[in-house]
Design goal:
The complex is a heterodimer of chains A (about 150) and B (about 775). In chain A, helix 2 crosses helix 5 and helix 3 packs parallel to helix 5. Chain A has five helices and five strands; from the N terminus they run E-E-H-E-E-E-H-H-H-H. Chain A is α+β, with helices and mostly antiparallel strands and about 150 residues long. A five-stranded mixed sheet of chain A has the order 2-1-5-3-4, with helices on one face. Chain A has two domains: about 80 residues, Beta-grasp domain (Ubiquitin-like (UB roll)), CATH 3.10.20.30; about 70 residues, [2Fe-2S]-binding domain (DNA polymerase, domain 1, Orthogonal Bundle). Chain B has three domains: about 190 residues, 2-Layer Sandwich (Aldehyde Oxidoreductase, domain 4), CATH 3.30.365; about 160 residues, Aldehyde Oxidoreductase, domain 4, CATH 3.30.365.10; about 350 residues, Aldehyde Oxidoreductase, domain 4. Chain B contains 20 helices and 28 strands. The radius of gyration of chain B is 27 Å and the shape is globular. The chains are: A alpha+beta (about 150), B alpha+beta (about 775). The complex binds FE2/S2 (inorganic) cluster (FES) (2 copies). One FE2/S2 (inorganic) cluster sits at the interface of chains A and B.
C-alpha cells in the first residue's frame, strides 16, 4: 500500500521501500536537494526537516513512520527565503561552505517556533545536534539570538 | 635541492618558484631591481608566453611583483575575454575559476576584477569555470593561494576592461580617452556632460585590443570599492539559506543511477570473492560492478572494491552493506597506530638525517650545562568535511561528462581521462559547490570511481560515499613525533636547539617508499623554523608509510607548531620565564631570515619567490604582540582562568593565537575567548578572513581535543562522528576575535585558508597547563582534560 505524505504543502504517494529514510525520499525521489546527507546516523543534523512543525533527523525517519504526516524541508520554510532565521543568517554572514546550513536553519527555526524566548543556553543545547565542520558556531549562535529577538519582538 | 622526483611532484602539486632569466641558478630568489613578470596571455585562441618589462610609470598605482603563480601547472591566464562578458543589458558575467569550499575564494577573486573594472557588484553574475587549465590557468584550490596568486591578474584584467570601456565611450563621443572616466558601471565625460552604461558600449569595448600592462592605469587604494572593505557577501549566501545552493550530490541527470561502493578495509587488499545474493535482493538494487584496486604509491587511483548500482541512494547503500566480500591480505595489514607511535618515538630518540645546521650544535649540546628535551605526538587525522565524497559521471559515445565537488577540476579531468584510457579532450568536469574540502577533494579517487561505473553500466551515475566510507578510506593527514631539545648553559641561556621530526611523508602516495619528510613538508615549520638560536640543527627520522597519506588543511604545519610551540612554553615554565617573552626571545632580533646564512637555501617557500615573501621575524613578533595585547596578556585573571599563546608562519602568512581557558569546579575546561592575530599582507576581504580565523579556531580545537584516526591491523577503526568527534556548539571557542594587521597593497596579499589552524592546538594546551598544571604532549587530549 502506498504511503501518503505531505511535503511542503503538497500531497505525495510513495510505494517504494517503506524503510527508506525521508532524507533519501526527498532528495532522490522528489529532487528536493536542500536537505543534506552528512552522517546517516542521526549525529550531524544536516538532514533536519520539520515533521508536523518539529525538527527531526531525516536520515533516521523511515517513510513508514511518517505516513500521513506533514513534512517541511528548507525549500518550504518560507516562499521567499525570508523566515527570520534565514534573514538573520544572511545579516550575520554565517556560512562558510554552507553544506550544514539548511539543517542548522531548520533546527533553529523549529526551536524558535516552539520557544521564541529561547535563552542562549537553550539555543546552545538545541543546536548541539548540528555539526558545522567549517566552524561557524559563533555566527550561528549570534544569528539564532538575532532571529529570536525578531520573532519575539 | 629536492630530488628530481620530488621536484616533479612538487611542480605538479604545489607549483615551484618562478624561474626567471635574471636568476638562472637561484630560482627561489629574484632580484628586486631587475624584476620581470612573465604573463601568459592567451589572445585570439592562441596562447603565447610574453615577457614584459615592468617599468613603474606615473599611471601605475602599484608596483607589480612576482609570485609562484607562474610556477604552477598551466600558470595564469590574463585575458579578459576568458573571464569577462558584458551583456547589452549591462549584466557583467565573471568567470570564477577557483572552487568554493567555504573560504570565499569563488567570490573574493572575481570581486577584485569587478572592483578594478568599476563594475557594480549587484549587476555581476558569477559563472563557475569547468576544469580547463589551458583556458583559465591553474585551478588547484589549495595551498591558501587563490588570492595570493590571482590578486594581480584580476586587477590587470579589471583595469584592461575599464580602459576598453573608456576608449569605446570616447570613440563614440568623438573625444580623447582622457576626457572620460569609468565609474560604477557607467562611463562619464569628466565634465559631466554625458554618460553611458557599460551594457551600451560593451560590444565595441570588448572588440578593442586588450591594452598592454604598461598602458594601464590602476585604481589607487582610496578608490577601492570592494577590496579591503569586507562588505561583499559570499555569492551563494542567499541560495545557501534557502536550500537552493547546488553541491555535488545535488546534480540529477535523466536516467541517472545511484551507486555505493564496498572498499577494502586495508589499503592494497583486493576482492577475493564476493557473494552478492543478499545485495541483489534489496529493492531497487540493479547491478554489481567490480572496481579494480590499487596499491600505493598509486596517486589518486581508487582503492578498488565492489559497486552496487541501484535506483536510489538508499538502495545502493543498503545493497552495499549486504555484500559479503572476502578480501585478500595486504602488506599493510600489520599497521597498528599504537605500535607505530612507539616506533616513531624510538626513531625520534636517535640522530636523524640533518636537514639544516647552523653554528655548531654538536658542541653546544656537549658543552651544555643541561639539556631540556620533550617529545610531542600527533596521530593521523581525517578531513571529515561535512559533505561526504560524491561524483556524478555520464559516459556516453566515447565522451565523459563529470559533475563533482573538486578542489582540482583539471587534475580530476586529466587523472580520470588517464584512468579510463581517454583523451582529456573527451572529458569535461563541471564544478559544483564543495561542502567543505580541507584537501580531501584535491584527490579525485571518487571521481574516477564514478566514471568507471558509468562506463561499465552505460548510464549516468551518482556515486555517493557514506560518512563511514569517508572516514575509513581517506588520504590521511600524516602522523608524527616531534622531538625537541634545548641546550642550556650555566646561566640558563639557550645555546643550542634541535628539532627532529619523524613523520611518514605525503610523497609515499606518489613514489615508492620514501623514508623522510619531503622538502615540501620540511618547509612547513621544520627547516624554516624562525628560532634564532645560534647553534641549531633540524633533522628528519625515517618513517615508512602504511596508508594513503595526503594533504590536510595546514599539512605538516600542524605537528610542527604543536611541537615547537608547546616546547617553548614548557621551556619557559622550566626556566621560570613568561612564555610570550620566551617565544619572542627565541625568535630573536627582527630580521628577514637570510636563507643562505641560515642554511635554508633549498627551502621550499610555499612555491613563492623568497625575496618577495621572506620569512620576516618582525611580522611574526608583530602578531604575537598584537594577540597578546588584545587578549590582555600579563593581566590578572580570575581564579581558574589562564591564557596560552602560540604563533606560526605558514603559507607565507603569520598567525598568533591566544586562547583563554576557564576551568570549572568539576575540572571541565571551557574556552570562553580566543584572539587570532593575522598578518596576511594587504587584506582583500577582512570579513572572510575573520570567518576563516573563527573556523580555524574551531578546527584547531577539534584536532587538539578529539581527532585520532586509529589503525588496527591495517584498518581504520573509526567510522562516524561518535568515534571521530568534532567540536560542537556546546563546546566551541566562544568568542573568537580576529585582529588583522593593516597593510597597504604594497605588502603582498597572502592567503588565510590554512594558516589559522596550526597555532590553535598548542595555544590551547599551553593555556590548560597555565590553568591546571597539566601538560599534554600527545594530541588529542580531550579525554584527559578535567
Ligand atoms: S545525516 Fe542525518 S543526522 Fe547526519
Ligand atoms: S558551513 Fe561548512 S559545514 Fe557548516
Amino acid at each position: 500500500m502506498a504511503i501518503s505524505i505531505k511535503v511542503n504543502g503538497e500531497e505525495h504517494a510513495f510505494d517504494g521501500d517503506p524503510t527508506m529514510p525521508v532524507l533519501w525520499y526527498v532528495r532522490d525521489i522528489l529532487n528536493l536537494h536542500g536537505t543534506k546527507f552528512g552522517c546517516g546516523t542521526g549525529q550531524c543534523g544536516a538532514c533536519t526537516v520539520h515533521v508536523d512543525g518539529k525538527a527531526q533527523r531525516g536520515c533516521l525517519l523511515s517513510m513508514e513512520s511518517v505516513a500521513g504526516r506533514d513534512i517541511t524541508t528548507i525549500e518550504g520554510l518560507d516562499p521567499n527565503g525570508d523566515h527570520p532565521v534565514q534573514k538573520a543568517w544572511r545579516v550575520n554572514n554565517v556560512p562558510q561552505c554552507g553544506y550544514c546550513q539548511a539543517g542548522q536553519i531548520m533546527n533553529a527555526a523549529s526551536l524558535l517556533e516552539n520557544n521564541p524566548k529561547a535563552s542562549s543556553e537553550e539555543i546552545e543545547q538545541q543546536m548541539t545536534g548540528n555539526i558545522c565542520r567549517c566552524g561557524c558556531y559563533q555566527r550561528i549562535q549570534a544569528a539564532v539570538e538575532m532571529a529570536a529577538s525578531e520573532m519575539e519582538g | 635541492m629536492h630530488s628530481q622526483i620530488e621536484q616533479a611532484i612538487a611542480a605538479e602539486l604545489y607549483g615551484e618558484p618562478v624561474e626567471t632569466e635574471d636568476s638562472p641558478q637561484s630560482s627561489a630568489i629574484i632580484g628586486k631591481l631587475s624584476r620581470r613578470k612573465f604573463l601568459k596571455i592567451s589572445g585570439g585562441g592562441a596562447a603565447m608566453a610574453l615577457a614584459m618589462q615592468i617599468v613603474p610609470g606615473a599611471a601605475m598605482a602599484y608596483d607589480p611583483y612576482p609570485t609562484g603563480a607562474e610556477g604552477m601547472p598551466n600558470g595564469t591566464v590574463v585575458d579578459p575575454h576568458v573571464f569577462v562578458e558584458i551583456a547589452p543589458d549591462g549584466t557583467v558575467t565573471l568567470t570564477t575559476h577557483r572552487s568554493e569550499m567555504g573560504t570565499g575564494a569563488k567570490t573574493g577573486v572575481p570581486m577584485v576584477l569587478a572592483d578594478e573594472m568599476e563594475a557594480d557588484w549587484s549587476r555581476v553574475v558569477l559563472r563557475q569555470a569547468e576544469g580547463d587549465e589551458p583556458k583559465y590557468g591553474n585551478q588547484d584550490t589549495d595551498g591558501s593561494r587563490s588570492l595570493r596568486h590571482y590578486l594581480q591578474p584580476m586587477r590587470q584584467m579589471g583595469a584592461s576592461v575599464r580602459s576598453m570601456l573608456e576608449q569605446a565611450a570616447a570613440k563614440q563621443w568623438g573625444v580623447e580617452a582622457d576626457q572620460v572616466i569609468a565609474e560604477n558601471h557607467e562611463v562619464h565625460m569628466k565634465d559631466g556632460s554625458k554618460k553611458i552604461g557599460y551594457g551600451d558600449i560593451a560590444a565595441e569595448a570588448m572588440a578593442l585590443e586588450v591594452p598592454a600592462f604598461e598602458e594601464l592605469s590602476f585604481k589607487t587604494e582610496d578608490q577601492f570599492r570592494y577590496m579591503g572593505k569586507g562588505e561583499v557577501p559570499m555569492y551563494d549566501l542567499h541560495d545557501i539559506t534557502t536550500g537552493k545552493a547546488r553541491y555535488g550530490a545535488d546534480i540529477t541527470l535523466d536516467g541517472m543511477k545511484f551507486a555505493a561502493v564496498a572498499r577494502p578495509p586495508v589499503v592494497g587488499a583486493r576482492v577475493e570473492s564476493v557473494d552478492d545474493s543478499d545485495a541483489m535482493k534489496v529493492p531497487g538494487v540493479e547491478r554489481i560492478v567490480n572496481i579494480d584496486g590499487s596499491m600505493p604509491p598509486a596517486k589518486f587511483a581508487p582503492l578498488g572494491g565492489v559497486a552496487v548500482v541501484a535506483s536510489n541512494t538508499w538502495a545502493a547503500i543498503k545493497g552495499r552493506d549486504a555484500l559479503k566480500i572476502q578480501w585478500s591480505d595486504s602488506p599493510h595489514g600489520e599497521y597498528n597506530s599504537k605500535a607505530y607511535a612507539e616506533q616513531m618515538r624510538a626513531t625520534a630518540k636517535k640522530p636523524g638525517k640533518v636537514m639544516r645546521k647552523v653554528g655548531d650544535p654538536d658542541a653546544a649540546f656537549s658543552n651544555a650545562a643541561r639539556v631540556f628535551s620533550q617529545e610531542y605526538y600527533q596521530p593521523h587525522m581525517q578531513h571529515a568535511q561535512m559533505e561526504p565524497l560524491v561524483a556524478v559521471a555520464d559516459f556516453k559515445d566515447g565522451k565523459l561528462n563529470i559533475w563533482a565537488p573538486v578542489q582540482s577540476p583539471y587534475g580530476a579531468r586529466t587523472d580520470t581521462a588517464a584512468a579510463l584510457g581517454m583523451d582529456a579532450a573527451d572529458v569535461t568536469v563541471e564544478v559544483s559547490l564543495l561542502g567543505g574540502g580541507f584537501g580531501r577533494k584535491s584527490k579525485c579517487d571518487y571521481v574516477i570511481e564514478a566514471a568507471l561505473v558509468s562506463k561499465e553500466i552505460g548510464a549516468p551515475v551518482k556515486l555517493q560515499w557514506t560518512r563511514e566510507d569517508d572516514i575509513r578510506h581517506g588520504f590521511y593527514h600524516t602522523t608524527s613525533v616531534e622531538h625537541l631539545e634545548a641546550a642550556l648553559d650555566g646561566d640558563d641561556k639557550v645555546i643550542g636547539w634541535r628539532h627532529r621530526s619523524v613523520s611518514p611523508t605525503i610523497f609515499s602516495t606518489f613514489v615508492e617508499d620514501p623514508l623522510h619528510t619531503s622538502g615540501l613538508e620540511a618547509g612547513m615549520g621544520l627547516v624554516d623554523t624562525p628560532i634564532g638560536v645560534e647553534n641549531l640543527v633540524v633533522e628528519s627520522g625515517e618513517a615508512k608509510s602504511h596508508t594513503r597519506i595526503g594533504w590536510f588543511r595546514s599539512v605538516s604545519n600542524i605537528p610542527r607548531a604543536w611541537g615547537v610551540q608547546s616546547f617553548i612554553a614548557e621551556l619557559a615554565h622550566d626556566l621560570g620565564r613568561d612564555p610570550k617573552d620566551m617565544l619572542i626571545e627565541l625568535i630573536g632580533p627582527d630580521r628577514k631570515i637570510d636563507p643562505v646564512a641560515a642554511d635554508m637555501k633549498e627551502l621550499w617557500n610555499y612555491g613563492e619567490p623568497y625575496e618577495e615573501f621572506p620569512n620576516d621575524t618582525a611580522r611574526l613578533r608583530g602578531v604575537i604582540e598584537l594577540a597578546a595585547e588584545k587578549a590582555g596578556w600579563g593581566k590578572d585573571l580570575p581564579e581558574g582562568e589562564a591564557l596560552g599563546i602560540a604563533a606560526h608562519r605558514s603559507f607565507v602568512t603569520y598567525v598568533a593565537t591566544v586562547v583563554k581557558v576557564k576551568v570549572g569546579a568539576d575540572g571541565s575546561v571551557a574556552v570562553p575567548e580566543v584572539h587570532m592575530a593575522v598578518d596576511c599582507g594587504f587584506c582583500v576581504n577582512p570579513e572572510r578572513v575573520a570567518s576563516q580565523m573563527e573556523g580555524a579556531a574551531v578546527m584547531g580545537m577539534t584536532l587538539a581535543m578529539h581527532s585520532n584516526i586509529n589503525y588496527e591491523n591495517g584498518a581504520v577503526t573509526n567510522s562516524n562522528f561518535h568515534d571521530y568527534p568534532v567540536v560542537r556548539i556546546n563546546s566551541y571557542p566562544k568568542d573568537v576575535h580576529t585582529h588583522i594587521v593593516d597593510h597597504p597593497f604594497a605588502v603582498h596579499a597572502t592567503g588565510v585558508g590554512e594558516p589559522g589552524v596550526p597555532p590553535v592546538a598548542p595555544a590551547l594546551a599551553n593555556a590548560i597547563f597555565a590553568a591546571t598544571g597539566k601538560r599534554f604532549r600527545d594530541m588529542p587530549f580531550g579525554e584527559n582534560v578535567g
